[in-house]
Design a protein that fits this description.
The chain has a single domain (2-403), classed as Amino acid/polyamine transporter I, CATH 1.20.1740.10. Helices cover 76% and strands 0% of the residues. The chain is built from 19 helices and no strands. It has helices at 2-18, 21-34, 39-63, 67-75, 77-110, 118-131, 134-144, 149-157, 162-167, 178-192, 195-207, 215-243, 262-265, 267-300, 314-332, 337-350, 353-362, 366-369, 376-403.
Length: 405
């Protein structure tokens, strides 16, 4: 029964971890501008994240080393300084966009401009990190994020053309705005497989004290949780097709997303959508701040644990404090949150090789994984993701210039 509860909570956490500012915004833009034709990018990002989380979780529970620590030990600090710097820089940008998403959700409810909410949101997030434990933070925000199921309910009530939905899972060449189309495709993939997700997940395996008996739990959690999260991101795209596209509405601001569900669910739809944006972005804010602290602490050999009292692991606590304060600054200055989100998702996609390629090597290291290292199918999957990450590295910046708006 306890193991089933772990799986159930892991699935719920997967939904909250997947559906945040980047996934919601990019999926809504894709549906409004290109109909169902970018559903394949959501599916590709979902499958890739399942593979990466399962492997980073398996690495952690077999070797009892989180991903960042394993990369540093295997490749040395001279190499790891590259993923460390890139990971921290990109994560801070993503953290700012998530914090901005929370502030915008509060603005939609109160009417007070979002920039005034940046510091209060950061303070609440910091207080929970300072006082909370890993399990309570992760599962508490995830359970609240179940309000996102309203998006799937709205998608069904709007009666989409399921044949067209299915056709959207097959990549097709766009007929117009090709640079913008491919930029959104890259951003969707970047939003789905942000490196902070597997740094956070592998550290969570250690925090939760998983061992070899959790191998199946890890597989099920990674697969089902992120499948449900990906399905909800797909539902965002479907709703955008049916609500925004017929009216010729382009998503230029996250505030527009507040009314997405009202044609199907009325006033309740507004409450649910604002709640989904606010809660999921807040959960991501906490996770990314922790991921920054995990990454730096593991790189420099500091003691780390969210379950310890802050004074026991002071450098770890200072790191997530600094991260969340730095992320609040651009939001307090009134930066365009949607543009920041798109930019950070694209950079996330471009940064993938520095973590995916080392993970490919680690998953075949018999000293770390013994008999649990990758087989041919696992190597085929992560090899394909590694090739994709190299392609994204090459094309992302040109697409940002040509189609990023």
């Amino acid at each position: 029964m306890k193991r089933l509860m772990e799986v159930a909570l892991g699935m719920v956490t997967g939904i909250g971890g997947f559906l945040e500012a980047g996934s919601i915004a990019t999926a809504a833009q894709a549906g409004a501008d290109f109909g169902y034709t970018l559903l394949w990018a959501v599916a590709l990002g979902t499958l890739s994240l399942i593979v990466l989380l399962e492997m980073s979780g398996r690495l952690a529970l077999v070797s009892q080393r989180p991903l960042a620590d394993a990369i540093r030990e295997r490749f040395g600090i001279n190499y790891f300084i590259v993923p460390l710097v890139i990971g921290l820089a990109v994560s801070l940008l993503v953290l700012a966009s998530e914090l901005g998403g929370v502030a915008l959700a509060v603005e939609m409810v109160t009417g007070i401009p979002f920039r005034w909410w940046a510091l209060p949101v950061a303070l609440v997030g910091w207080a929970l990190l300072w006082k909370g434990t890993f399990g309570k933070l992760e599962k508490g925000t995830a359970l609240l994020g179940l309000v996102s199921i309203a998006i799937a309910v709205a998608a069904k009530k709007l009666h989409p053309d399921w044949g067209a939905v299915g056709a959207g899972l097959v990549p097709t060449a766009p007929r117009h705005e090709r640079a913008h189309y491919w930029f959104l495709a890259v951003s969707i993939v970047g939003a789905s497989i942000s490196p902070y997700l597997y740094y956070f997940y592998s550290a969570g395996v250690i925090e939760e004290k998983w061992d070899l008996s959790f191998l199946n739990t890890n597989r099920i959690t990674a697969a089902l949780g992120n499948t449900l999260g990906g399905a909800l991101a797909g539902a965002v795209l479907v709703v955008a097709v049916l609500v925004f596209s017929p009216r010729g509405i382009h998503v230029d601001a996250i505030q527009q997303l507040g009314v997405m569900l009202t044609p199907a669910l009325g006033r309740v739809g507004f409450v649910c959508m604002v709640g989904a944006i606010g809660v999921n972005c807040f959960g991501a804010t906490v996770e990314i701040a922790l991921a920054c602290a995990y990454l730096l602490a593991q790189a420099l050999g500091w003691e780390w644990s969210e379950d310890a009292k802050p004074r026991e692991h002071a450098r770890f606590s200072v790191t997530y404090t600094v991260a969340i304060v730095l992320a609040a600054v651009p939001i307090a200055l009134g930066v365009d949150v949607l543009k920041l989100t798109n930019f950070s998702m694209a950079l996330t996609a471009a940064s993938l090789p520095v973590t995916v390629l080392p993970l490919l090597v680690l998953m075949n290291d018999p000293r770390l994984l013994h008999k649990h290292r990758n087989g041919w199918l696992g190597n085929l999957a992560i090899g394909a993701i590694a090739v994709m990450s190299l392609v994204l590295l090459v094309v992302t910046i040109p697409l940002q210039i040509l189609g990023g708006g």
